[in-house]
Amino acid sequence: MTGGIIYTAKAVHTLNPSRPSSRAVAVRDGRVLAVGTVDECSRWGIERVDTRFERDVIVPGFVEAHSHLMEGQWGQVPYVGRFDRTMPDGTIAPGVASIAEFLERLRGLLANKHDVPYFVASGFDPIYFDGERLNRHHLDSVSSTTPIFIFHASGHLATVNSAFLNKYNIGAGHPTPGVGFGHDGEPDGELRETAALALAKDEFMHLGKVFSSEQCITDFGHAARLAGVTTATDLASSFLFRPEHASVVANIVNMAAYPIRLACAPLMRSQGKSIDEQLDALKTSRLHESDKFKIPVVKMMLDGSIQGFTAMISWPGYITGEGHGFLLQTPEETFDMVTRLTAARIGVHCHCNGDVASELFIDAVEHALGNHAWLDHRHTITHAQTITHAQLRRARNLGIGCNFFSNHLWFWGDQHHDITLGSDRASQMNPAASAARLGIPFTLHSDASVTPIGQLHTMWAAINRQTVSGRTLGENEAISPAIALQATTLGAAYLLHLDHLIGSLETGKFADMTVLADDPLKVDPNDIRNIEVRDTIVGGAVTSENI
For the domain with range 213-536, which CATH number is right: 3.40.50.720, 3.30.530.20, 3.20.20.140, 3.40.50.150? Predict the structure, then answer.
Protein backbone atom coordinates (compact mmCIF):
# COMPACT_ATOMS: atom_id res chain seq x y z
CA MET A 1 0.00 0.00 0.00
CA THR A 2 1.27 3.46 -0.91
CA GLY A 3 0.02 7.01 -0.65
CA GLY A 4 -1.38 8.87 2.29
CA ILE A 5 -0.22 11.74 4.45
CA ILE A 6 1.09 12.26 7.96
CA TYR A 7 -0.04 15.32 9.91
CA THR A 8 2.19 16.44 12.76
CA ALA A 9 1.29 18.66 15.71
CA LYS A 10 2.64 19.93 19.00
CA ALA A 11 0.16 17.59 20.62
CA VAL A 12 -2.55 15.23 19.41
CA HIS A 13 -5.34 14.33 21.83
CA THR A 14 -6.87 11.18 20.39
CA LEU A 15 -9.69 10.43 22.89
CA ASN A 16 -8.60 6.82 22.48
CA PRO A 17 -8.04 5.66 26.08
CA SER A 18 -5.49 3.08 24.95
CA ARG A 19 -3.28 5.77 23.41
CA PRO A 20 -4.60 9.17 24.51
CA SER A 21 -1.85 11.35 23.06
CA SER A 22 0.67 11.41 20.24
CA ARG A 23 2.49 13.77 17.89
CA ALA A 24 1.37 12.52 14.47
CA VAL A 25 -1.62 11.09 12.64
CA ALA A 26 -1.29 9.03 9.47
CA VAL A 27 -4.17 9.20 7.00
CA ARG A 28 -5.01 7.07 4.00
CA ASP A 29 -8.21 6.84 1.96
CA GLY A 30 -9.88 9.38 4.21
CA ARG A 31 -9.41 7.33 7.38
CA VAL A 32 -7.00 7.23 10.28
CA LEU A 33 -4.28 4.74 9.40
CA ALA A 34 -2.11 5.11 12.47
CA VAL A 35 -1.44 7.40 15.43
CA GLY A 36 1.95 7.77 17.06
CA THR A 37 5.34 9.24 16.20
CA VAL A 38 6.30 10.20 12.67
CA ASP A 39 8.56 7.14 12.51
CA GLU A 40 5.75 4.85 13.62
CA CYS A 41 3.33 6.34 11.12
CA SER A 42 5.82 6.26 8.23
CA ARG A 43 6.19 2.47 8.55
CA TRP A 44 3.00 2.23 6.53
CA GLY A 45 4.92 3.45 3.51
CA ILE A 46 3.90 7.07 3.77
CA GLU A 47 6.52 9.54 2.62
CA ARG A 48 4.50 12.74 2.66
CA VAL A 49 4.67 14.58 5.99
CA ASP A 50 2.62 17.77 6.41
CA THR A 51 4.13 19.95 9.14
CA ARG A 52 1.95 23.04 8.75
CA PHE A 53 0.27 22.29 12.13
CA GLU A 54 3.41 21.34 14.02
CA ARG A 55 2.99 24.27 16.44
CA ASP A 56 -0.73 23.63 16.93
CA VAL A 57 -2.85 21.08 18.77
CA ILE A 58 -4.99 18.47 17.03
CA VAL A 59 -8.12 17.03 18.65
CA PRO A 60 -10.80 14.80 17.15
CA GLY A 61 -13.16 16.84 15.03
CA PHE A 62 -15.79 18.50 17.21
CA VAL A 63 -19.21 16.86 16.96
CA GLU A 64 -22.26 19.07 17.50
CA ALA A 65 -25.17 16.77 18.36
CA HIS A 66 -27.86 19.46 18.55
CA SER A 67 -27.85 22.19 15.95
CA HIS A 68 -30.07 23.24 13.07
CA LEU A 69 -29.48 24.18 9.45
CA MET A 70 -31.15 27.50 10.19
CA GLU A 71 -27.84 28.62 11.71
CA GLY A 72 -27.10 29.42 8.07
CA GLN A 73 -30.02 31.86 7.82
CA TRP A 74 -28.08 35.03 8.62
CA GLY A 75 -27.14 35.75 5.04
CA GLN A 76 -30.85 36.08 4.22
CA VAL A 77 -32.64 37.04 7.47
CA PRO A 78 -31.71 40.17 9.47
CA TYR A 79 -30.16 39.41 12.87
CA VAL A 80 -31.60 41.45 15.76
CA GLY A 81 -30.32 39.56 18.82
CA ARG A 82 -28.86 40.76 22.11
CA PHE A 83 -25.23 39.72 21.54
CA ASP A 84 -22.77 40.35 18.72
CA ARG A 85 -22.97 37.42 16.31
CA THR A 86 -20.43 35.94 13.90
CA MET A 87 -21.95 35.55 10.45
CA PRO A 88 -21.15 32.60 8.15
CA ASP A 89 -18.69 34.79 6.22
CA GLY A 90 -16.80 35.62 9.42
CA THR A 91 -18.09 39.19 9.80
CA ILE A 92 -19.69 40.37 13.04
CA ALA A 93 -23.30 41.53 13.30
CA PRO A 94 -23.71 43.84 16.31
CA GLY A 95 -26.23 43.01 19.01
CA VAL A 96 -28.93 45.32 20.36
CA ALA A 97 -28.66 46.50 23.96
CA SER A 98 -32.18 47.88 24.56
CA ILE A 99 -35.72 47.87 23.25
CA ALA A 100 -35.16 51.40 21.92
CA GLU A 101 -32.05 50.29 20.03
CA PHE A 102 -33.91 47.24 18.71
CA LEU A 103 -36.77 49.37 17.39
CA GLU A 104 -34.33 51.81 15.81
CA ARG A 105 -32.59 48.84 14.10
CA LEU A 106 -35.95 47.74 12.69
CA ARG A 107 -36.71 51.24 11.39
CA GLY A 108 -33.39 51.26 9.59
CA LEU A 109 -34.02 47.83 8.07
CA LEU A 110 -37.49 48.87 6.91
CA ALA A 111 -36.48 52.31 5.66
CA ASN A 112 -36.26 51.25 2.02
CA LYS A 113 -38.88 48.50 2.13
CA HIS A 114 -42.17 50.36 2.31
CA ASP A 115 -43.79 48.22 -0.38
CA VAL A 116 -42.86 44.76 0.95
CA PRO A 117 -45.81 42.48 1.84
CA TYR A 118 -44.26 41.61 5.21
CA PHE A 119 -41.01 41.91 7.19
CA VAL A 120 -39.23 39.10 9.05
CA ALA A 121 -36.23 39.33 11.40
CA SER A 122 -34.79 36.82 13.85
CA GLY A 123 -32.69 36.33 16.96
CA PHE A 124 -34.50 38.65 19.39
CA ASP A 125 -35.47 37.77 22.97
CA PRO A 126 -37.47 40.21 25.14
CA ILE A 127 -36.39 38.61 28.42
CA TYR A 128 -33.08 40.51 28.28
CA PHE A 129 -34.64 43.93 28.60
CA ASP A 130 -36.12 45.72 31.58
CA GLY A 131 -39.50 47.36 31.47
CA GLU A 132 -42.55 46.37 29.48
CA ARG A 133 -42.18 43.15 27.48
CA LEU A 134 -42.02 43.70 23.72
CA ASN A 135 -45.55 43.77 22.29
CA ARG A 136 -47.52 44.79 19.22
CA HIS A 137 -47.61 48.45 20.28
CA HIS A 138 -43.80 48.67 20.21
CA LEU A 139 -43.74 47.20 16.71
CA ASP A 140 -46.61 49.47 15.62
CA SER A 141 -44.25 52.39 16.24
CA VAL A 142 -42.01 50.93 13.54
CA SER A 143 -44.79 50.33 11.02
CA SER A 144 -48.56 50.45 11.17
CA THR A 145 -48.97 49.10 7.65
CA THR A 146 -46.33 46.44 7.02
CA PRO A 147 -46.90 43.15 8.89
CA ILE A 148 -43.85 42.53 11.12
CA PHE A 149 -42.83 39.09 12.37
CA ILE A 150 -39.94 38.95 14.87
CA PHE A 151 -38.80 35.35 15.39
CA HIS A 152 -37.37 34.86 18.88
CA ALA A 153 -33.93 33.34 19.42
CA SER A 154 -35.44 30.21 21.00
CA GLY A 155 -37.41 29.38 17.85
CA HIS A 156 -40.48 28.84 20.07
CA LEU A 157 -42.02 32.33 20.04
CA ALA A 158 -42.50 35.40 17.92
CA THR A 159 -43.73 38.96 18.39
CA VAL A 160 -45.87 40.64 15.73
CA ASN A 161 -47.50 44.03 15.15
CA SER A 162 -51.11 45.05 14.65
CA ALA A 163 -50.80 44.95 10.86
CA PHE A 164 -49.87 41.27 11.18
CA LEU A 165 -52.79 40.57 13.53
CA ASN A 166 -55.20 42.32 11.17
CA LYS A 167 -53.81 40.43 8.19
CA TYR A 168 -54.73 37.11 9.78
CA ASN A 169 -57.88 38.27 11.61
CA ILE A 170 -56.37 37.52 15.03
CA GLY A 171 -58.51 39.36 17.52
CA ALA A 172 -59.98 39.12 21.02
CA GLY A 173 -60.93 35.59 21.96
CA HIS A 174 -58.95 33.97 19.13
CA PRO A 175 -59.07 30.23 19.92
CA THR A 176 -55.58 29.14 18.86
CA PRO A 177 -53.46 28.02 21.84
CA GLY A 178 -50.39 30.18 22.36
CA VAL A 179 -51.85 33.50 21.20
CA GLY A 180 -51.01 36.00 23.92
CA PHE A 181 -53.55 38.48 25.25
CA GLY A 182 -53.17 41.70 27.22
CA HIS A 183 -55.18 42.94 30.18
CA ASP A 184 -57.65 44.50 27.74
CA GLY A 185 -58.46 41.10 26.26
CA GLU A 186 -56.87 42.01 22.92
CA PRO A 187 -53.91 40.12 21.42
CA ASP A 188 -50.63 41.48 22.79
CA GLY A 189 -48.67 40.43 19.72
CA GLU A 190 -46.87 37.40 21.21
CA LEU A 191 -47.24 33.98 19.56
CA ARG A 192 -46.07 30.99 21.60
CA GLU A 193 -45.26 27.55 20.21
CA THR A 194 -46.27 25.66 17.08
CA ALA A 195 -50.02 26.24 16.82
CA ALA A 196 -49.78 30.00 17.27
CA LEU A 197 -46.68 30.37 15.10
CA ALA A 198 -48.41 28.43 12.31
CA LEU A 199 -50.85 31.34 11.97
CA ALA A 200 -48.03 33.26 10.25
CA LYS A 201 -48.52 31.44 6.96
CA ASP A 202 -46.61 33.78 4.64
CA GLU A 203 -43.88 34.60 7.13
CA PHE A 204 -43.27 30.99 8.13
CA MET A 205 -43.31 29.92 4.48
CA HIS A 206 -40.65 32.55 3.86
CA LEU A 207 -38.51 31.25 6.72
CA GLY A 208 -39.05 27.66 5.55
CA LYS A 209 -37.75 28.57 2.09
CA VAL A 210 -34.73 30.25 3.66
CA PHE A 211 -33.95 27.33 5.96
CA SER A 212 -34.14 24.80 3.10
CA SER A 213 -32.26 26.92 0.56
CA GLU A 214 -28.90 25.94 -0.85
CA GLN A 215 -27.42 29.17 0.51
CA CYS A 216 -28.59 28.41 4.07
CA ILE A 217 -27.28 24.85 3.95
CA THR A 218 -23.99 26.05 2.49
CA ASP A 219 -23.62 28.89 4.98
CA PHE A 220 -24.37 26.47 7.82
CA GLY A 221 -21.43 24.32 6.75
CA HIS A 222 -19.11 27.33 6.63
CA ALA A 223 -20.25 28.54 10.07
CA ALA A 224 -19.61 25.08 11.53
CA ARG A 225 -16.16 24.89 9.92
CA LEU A 226 -15.16 28.29 11.28
CA ALA A 227 -16.05 27.00 14.75
CA GLY A 228 -14.00 23.82 14.36
CA VAL A 229 -16.99 21.48 13.97
CA THR A 230 -16.48 18.59 11.57
CA THR A 231 -19.81 16.80 12.15
CA ALA A 232 -22.95 18.80 12.88
CA THR A 233 -26.62 17.91 13.11
CA ASP A 234 -29.89 19.18 11.78
CA LEU A 235 -31.93 18.06 14.76
CA ALA A 236 -35.46 18.49 13.44
CA SER A 237 -35.25 17.81 9.71
CA SER A 238 -38.47 17.91 7.72
CA PHE A 239 -37.74 14.70 5.79
CA LEU A 240 -40.73 12.78 7.18
CA PHE A 241 -43.14 15.39 5.84
CA ARG A 242 -41.01 16.57 2.90
CA PRO A 243 -39.16 13.43 1.72
CA GLU A 244 -37.74 15.23 -1.31
CA HIS A 245 -35.73 17.52 0.98
CA ALA A 246 -33.45 14.67 2.05
CA SER A 247 -32.16 14.38 -1.50
CA VAL A 248 -31.59 18.15 -1.72
CA VAL A 249 -29.59 18.26 1.52
CA ALA A 250 -27.62 15.09 0.72
CA ASN A 251 -26.57 16.40 -2.69
CA ILE A 252 -25.18 19.59 -1.17
CA VAL A 253 -23.42 17.85 1.72
CA ASN A 254 -21.86 15.25 -0.58
CA MET A 255 -20.09 17.92 -2.64
CA ALA A 256 -16.35 17.67 -2.16
CA ALA A 257 -16.12 21.30 -1.10
CA TYR A 258 -18.77 21.00 1.62
CA PRO A 259 -16.64 21.25 4.78
CA ILE A 260 -18.51 19.06 7.31
CA ARG A 261 -20.41 15.82 7.74
CA LEU A 262 -24.09 16.22 8.53
CA ALA A 263 -26.18 13.97 10.77
CA CYS A 264 -29.89 14.66 10.41
CA ALA A 265 -32.62 13.75 12.89
CA PRO A 266 -36.04 13.98 11.23
CA LEU A 267 -38.77 15.40 13.46
CA MET A 268 -41.45 12.88 14.47
CA ARG A 269 -44.82 14.56 15.01
CA SER A 270 -48.02 13.44 16.67
CA GLN A 271 -50.11 15.43 14.17
CA GLY A 272 -50.48 14.89 10.46
CA LYS A 273 -49.01 11.70 9.07
CA SER A 274 -49.37 8.47 11.06
CA ILE A 275 -46.39 6.85 12.76
CA ASP A 276 -46.36 4.16 10.05
CA GLU A 277 -46.24 6.80 7.32
CA GLN A 278 -43.42 8.60 9.10
CA LEU A 279 -41.45 5.36 9.53
CA ASP A 280 -41.85 4.66 5.81
CA ALA A 281 -40.63 8.18 5.02
CA LEU A 282 -37.62 7.60 7.30
CA LYS A 283 -36.68 4.46 5.37
CA THR A 284 -36.94 6.39 2.11
CA SER A 285 -34.83 9.24 3.45
CA ARG A 286 -32.13 6.85 4.63
CA LEU A 287 -31.62 5.71 1.03
CA HIS A 288 -29.68 8.96 0.58
CA GLU A 289 -27.14 8.20 3.33
CA SER A 290 -23.43 8.38 2.55
CA ASP A 291 -20.16 8.78 4.43
CA LYS A 292 -20.91 12.50 4.77
CA PHE A 293 -24.69 12.37 5.20
CA LYS A 294 -26.32 10.27 7.92
CA ILE A 295 -29.80 9.94 9.42
CA PRO A 296 -28.89 8.04 12.61
CA VAL A 297 -31.70 9.07 14.99
CA VAL A 298 -35.02 10.92 15.08
CA LYS A 299 -36.16 13.98 17.02
CA MET A 300 -39.20 14.41 19.27
CA MET A 301 -40.39 17.55 21.05
CA LEU A 302 -42.32 17.52 24.33
CA ASP A 303 -42.24 21.12 25.55
CA GLY A 304 -41.01 24.60 24.79
CA SER A 305 -38.58 27.24 26.04
CA ILE A 306 -37.70 28.15 29.63
CA GLN A 307 -37.04 31.80 28.83
CA GLY A 308 -40.26 31.81 26.82
CA PHE A 309 -42.15 30.35 29.83
CA THR A 310 -43.42 27.44 27.70
CA ALA A 311 -41.12 24.71 29.05
CA MET A 312 -43.08 22.32 31.28
CA ILE A 313 -41.83 23.03 34.82
CA SER A 314 -43.09 21.21 37.94
CA TRP A 315 -44.29 22.93 41.12
CA PRO A 316 -43.77 25.74 42.02
CA GLY A 317 -43.44 26.76 38.36
CA TYR A 318 -41.90 30.03 37.26
CA ILE A 319 -41.11 32.63 39.88
CA THR A 320 -42.79 35.34 37.79
CA GLY A 321 -46.10 33.51 38.06
CA GLU A 322 -46.18 32.65 34.37
CA GLY A 323 -47.62 29.20 35.08
CA HIS A 324 -45.96 25.88 34.39
CA GLY A 325 -45.69 25.80 30.57
CA PHE A 326 -47.42 23.17 28.45
CA LEU A 327 -46.77 19.92 26.61
CA LEU A 328 -46.62 19.84 22.83
CA GLN A 329 -48.14 16.36 22.63
CA THR A 330 -50.10 14.16 25.00
CA PRO A 331 -48.57 11.50 27.27
CA GLU A 332 -50.49 8.84 25.32
CA GLU A 333 -49.02 10.05 22.02
CA THR A 334 -45.56 10.12 23.58
CA PHE A 335 -45.78 6.58 24.95
CA ASP A 336 -47.03 5.27 21.61
CA MET A 337 -44.35 7.02 19.58
CA VAL A 338 -41.43 6.02 21.82
CA THR A 339 -42.65 2.42 21.94
CA ARG A 340 -42.95 2.20 18.15
CA LEU A 341 -39.53 3.73 17.61
CA THR A 342 -37.90 1.47 20.19
CA ALA A 343 -39.49 -1.59 18.58
CA ALA A 344 -38.03 -0.45 15.24
CA ARG A 345 -34.57 0.07 16.83
CA ILE A 346 -34.58 3.80 16.08
CA GLY A 347 -32.83 6.08 18.56
CA VAL A 348 -34.75 9.10 19.86
CA HIS A 349 -33.38 12.50 20.83
CA CYS A 350 -36.23 14.15 22.73
CA HIS A 351 -36.46 17.89 23.43
CA CYS A 352 -37.17 18.26 27.17
CA ASN A 353 -36.39 21.66 28.69
CA GLY A 354 -38.66 21.27 31.70
CA ASP A 355 -38.44 18.52 34.31
CA VAL A 356 -42.06 17.51 33.65
CA ALA A 357 -41.13 16.78 30.05
CA SER A 358 -38.04 14.82 31.17
CA GLU A 359 -40.21 12.74 33.49
CA LEU A 360 -42.65 11.95 30.70
CA PHE A 361 -39.89 10.87 28.33
CA ILE A 362 -38.22 8.70 30.97
CA ASP A 363 -41.58 7.08 31.71
CA ALA A 364 -42.13 6.48 27.99
CA VAL A 365 -38.70 4.89 27.54
CA GLU A 366 -39.23 2.65 30.58
CA HIS A 367 -42.57 1.53 29.16
CA ALA A 368 -41.07 0.94 25.70
CA LEU A 369 -38.15 -1.10 27.02
CA GLY A 370 -40.54 -3.22 29.07
CA ASN A 371 -42.20 -4.26 25.83
CA HIS A 372 -39.21 -4.23 23.47
CA ALA A 373 -35.86 -4.92 25.11
CA TRP A 374 -33.03 -2.98 23.48
CA LEU A 375 -29.83 -2.74 25.46
CA ASP A 376 -28.12 -0.22 23.17
CA HIS A 377 -30.88 2.26 22.40
CA ARG A 378 -29.02 5.44 23.46
CA HIS A 379 -32.27 7.40 23.68
CA THR A 380 -31.30 10.92 24.70
CA ILE A 381 -32.92 13.75 26.66
CA THR A 382 -31.83 16.77 24.69
CA HIS A 383 -31.48 20.00 26.68
CA ALA A 384 -32.26 18.22 30.00
CA GLN A 385 -31.89 21.66 31.52
CA THR A 386 -34.01 21.23 34.63
CA ILE A 387 -33.69 17.46 35.00
CA THR A 388 -33.73 16.46 38.67
CA HIS A 389 -31.24 14.20 40.41
CA ALA A 390 -33.91 11.53 40.85
CA GLN A 391 -34.53 11.69 37.11
CA LEU A 392 -30.80 11.44 36.40
CA ARG A 393 -30.64 8.24 38.42
CA ARG A 394 -33.60 6.79 36.53
CA ALA A 395 -32.00 7.83 33.23
CA ARG A 396 -28.79 6.03 34.19
CA ASN A 397 -30.66 2.86 35.09
CA LEU A 398 -32.51 2.90 31.77
CA GLY A 399 -29.48 3.70 29.60
CA ILE A 400 -30.75 7.16 28.64
CA GLY A 401 -28.17 9.80 27.70
CA CYS A 402 -28.29 13.57 28.12
CA ASN A 403 -27.39 16.38 25.74
CA PHE A 404 -26.98 19.45 27.94
CA PHE A 405 -27.57 22.98 26.70
CA SER A 406 -24.60 24.37 28.61
CA ASN A 407 -24.58 27.59 26.58
CA HIS A 408 -27.77 28.59 28.41
CA LEU A 409 -25.69 29.21 31.52
CA TRP A 410 -24.00 32.11 29.75
CA PHE A 411 -26.69 33.45 27.43
CA TRP A 412 -29.66 33.19 29.85
CA GLY A 413 -28.13 32.25 33.21
CA ASP A 414 -28.85 35.59 34.87
CA GLN A 415 -32.44 35.55 33.60
CA HIS A 416 -32.97 32.02 34.95
CA HIS A 417 -31.50 33.07 38.30
CA ASP A 418 -33.59 36.24 38.57
CA ILE A 419 -36.75 35.70 36.52
CA THR A 420 -37.62 32.14 35.53
CA LEU A 421 -36.38 29.53 38.04
CA GLY A 422 -34.67 31.20 41.01
CA SER A 423 -31.15 30.72 42.33
CA ASP A 424 -31.40 27.13 43.58
CA ARG A 425 -32.99 25.58 40.51
CA ALA A 426 -30.91 27.72 38.14
CA SER A 427 -27.74 26.51 39.87
CA GLN A 428 -28.76 22.93 39.10
CA MET A 429 -29.38 23.57 35.40
CA ASN A 430 -27.49 21.42 32.89
CA PRO A 431 -26.04 19.19 35.63
CA ALA A 432 -23.11 17.76 33.68
CA ALA A 433 -20.98 17.00 36.74
CA SER A 434 -23.76 14.93 38.29
CA ALA A 435 -24.18 13.06 35.02
CA ALA A 436 -20.45 12.36 34.96
CA ARG A 437 -20.51 11.11 38.57
CA LEU A 438 -23.39 8.78 37.73
CA GLY A 439 -21.74 7.49 34.57
CA ILE A 440 -24.47 8.82 32.27
CA PRO A 441 -23.30 9.31 28.67
CA PHE A 442 -23.67 12.97 27.76
CA THR A 443 -22.66 15.71 25.40
CA LEU A 444 -22.97 19.51 25.21
CA HIS A 445 -24.61 21.57 22.49
CA SER A 446 -25.32 25.04 21.13
CA ASP A 447 -28.77 24.42 19.58
CA ALA A 448 -27.61 26.74 16.80
CA SER A 449 -29.13 29.03 15.72
CA VAL A 450 -30.50 29.56 19.24
CA THR A 451 -26.90 30.25 20.26
CA PRO A 452 -23.91 30.34 17.88
CA ILE A 453 -22.47 27.01 16.84
CA GLY A 454 -19.11 26.28 18.49
CA GLN A 455 -18.05 23.52 20.86
CA LEU A 456 -15.25 25.58 22.39
CA HIS A 457 -17.94 27.86 23.82
CA THR A 458 -20.15 25.00 25.02
CA MET A 459 -17.08 23.49 26.73
CA TRP A 460 -16.23 26.84 28.32
CA ALA A 461 -19.79 27.24 29.58
CA ALA A 462 -19.91 23.77 31.15
CA ILE A 463 -16.47 24.20 32.74
CA ASN A 464 -16.91 27.72 34.13
CA ARG A 465 -20.72 28.03 34.44
CA GLN A 466 -20.37 31.79 34.26
CA THR A 467 -23.20 34.20 33.47
CA VAL A 468 -23.03 37.50 31.61
CA SER A 469 -23.06 39.39 34.93
CA GLY A 470 -20.06 37.38 36.14
CA ARG A 471 -21.75 35.13 38.70
CA THR A 472 -20.88 31.45 38.85
CA LEU A 473 -24.10 29.51 38.49
CA GLY A 474 -23.81 26.16 40.24
CA GLU A 475 -20.09 25.57 40.78
CA ASN A 476 -20.76 22.01 41.96
CA GLU A 477 -21.99 21.09 38.48
CA ALA A 478 -18.81 22.34 36.74
CA ILE A 479 -16.82 19.75 34.80
CA SER A 480 -13.14 19.53 33.91
CA PRO A 481 -11.71 20.43 30.48
CA ALA A 482 -10.90 16.77 29.86
CA ILE A 483 -14.49 15.70 30.48
CA ALA A 484 -15.78 18.59 28.36
CA LEU A 485 -13.51 17.63 25.45
CA GLN A 486 -14.69 14.04 25.67
CA ALA A 487 -18.32 15.19 25.75
CA THR A 488 -17.99 17.33 22.61
CA THR A 489 -16.22 14.68 20.55
CA LEU A 490 -16.67 11.01 21.43
CA GLY A 491 -19.62 11.66 23.77
CA ALA A 492 -21.61 13.34 21.01
CA ALA A 493 -20.67 10.67 18.48
CA TYR A 494 -21.82 7.93 20.88
CA LEU A 495 -25.27 9.42 21.43
CA LEU A 496 -25.66 9.76 17.64
CA HIS A 497 -24.78 6.07 17.15
CA LEU A 498 -21.76 7.20 15.12
CA ASP A 499 -18.89 6.53 17.54
CA HIS A 500 -17.61 3.68 15.33
CA LEU A 501 -16.94 6.30 12.64
CA ILE A 502 -16.10 9.61 14.34
CA GLY A 503 -15.39 11.15 17.75
CA SER A 504 -11.84 9.89 18.35
CA LEU A 505 -8.65 9.37 16.39
CA GLU A 506 -8.40 5.59 16.09
CA THR A 507 -7.34 3.34 13.25
CA GLY A 508 -10.18 2.83 10.79
CA LYS A 509 -12.27 5.86 11.77
CA PHE A 510 -12.81 8.83 9.49
CA ALA A 511 -9.81 11.16 9.64
CA ASP A 512 -11.72 14.15 11.02
CA MET A 513 -9.69 16.59 13.14
CA THR A 514 -9.92 20.07 14.58
CA VAL A 515 -6.72 22.10 14.67
CA LEU A 516 -6.42 24.54 17.59
CA ALA A 517 -3.86 27.22 18.32
CA ASP A 518 -3.72 26.25 22.01
CA ASP A 519 -4.29 23.15 24.09
CA PRO A 520 -7.76 23.13 25.72
CA LEU A 521 -6.40 20.78 28.39
CA LYS A 522 -3.58 23.15 29.37
CA VAL A 523 -4.78 26.74 28.97
CA ASP A 524 -6.55 28.61 31.72
CA PRO A 525 -10.10 27.12 31.65
CA ASN A 526 -11.50 30.64 31.39
CA ASP A 527 -9.67 31.09 28.07
CA ILE A 528 -11.00 27.98 26.31
CA ARG A 529 -13.69 29.79 24.35
CA ASN A 530 -11.04 32.19 23.00
CA ILE A 531 -8.82 29.48 21.51
CA GLU A 532 -8.34 30.10 17.80
CA VAL A 533 -9.55 27.42 15.42
CA ARG A 534 -6.70 27.18 12.92
CA ASP A 535 -8.38 24.71 10.56
CA THR A 536 -10.33 21.50 10.27
CA ILE A 537 -9.57 18.25 8.52
CA VAL A 538 -12.42 16.11 7.20
CA GLY A 539 -11.71 12.74 5.66
CA GLY A 540 -8.00 13.54 5.76
CA ALA A 541 -8.39 16.73 3.68
CA VAL A 542 -7.71 20.21 5.05
CA THR A 543 -11.00 22.02 4.55
CA SER A 544 -9.51 25.51 4.05
CA GLU A 545 -7.94 24.27 0.82
CA ASN A 546 -11.40 23.80 -0.73
CA ILE A 547 -12.76 27.26 0.05
Answer: 3.20.20.140
